[in-house]
């Protein structure tokens, strides 16, 4: 399977450096610069026969799919963002002040609103179920996208929080 990942468009919380997690935050109004980036990415995607389009059920990912012309993506709870628990809505810097060694060096011990193992199981179950499809487009989140890259491209889970994926970025992963 070729998996095409697009991290959702920016939200006000992204701009403010706040963790969103499961909070259902809408995207910001699409400006001209973002619209140009979307059109450029759409041209790349038009060269690929997308078998199926999926999205996290949160507004920011479904709205991003719609901006890309996918009006009814199939939503799947297994690709919803990681649950950051008490840190959701707070600056990421606060979380890092408390748990940076786990975040960067031992992510498998991460335990906030959900345990990392639970997160891993649900995302892996999604991938395993869809791997027979050819070209899958997934509109998702930063942590989910970084996990998929670390696990399936690099085979190195310790890289997860050392990878940066900006909003509205297309990444291709061969599964």
From TrEMBL:
Matches recorded under InterPro entries: His_Pase_superF_clade-1 (IPR013078), His_PPase_superfam (IPR029033), PGM_Phosphatase (IPR050275)
Domain of life: Bacteria
Signal peptide limits: none
SMART domains in UniProt: PGAM
PANTHER family per record: BROAD-SPECIFICITY PHOSPHATASE YOR283W-RELATED (PTHR48100)
Name this polypeptide is given: Histidine phosphatase family protein
Organismal lineage: Bacteria, Pseudomonadati, Balneolota, Balneolia, Balneolales
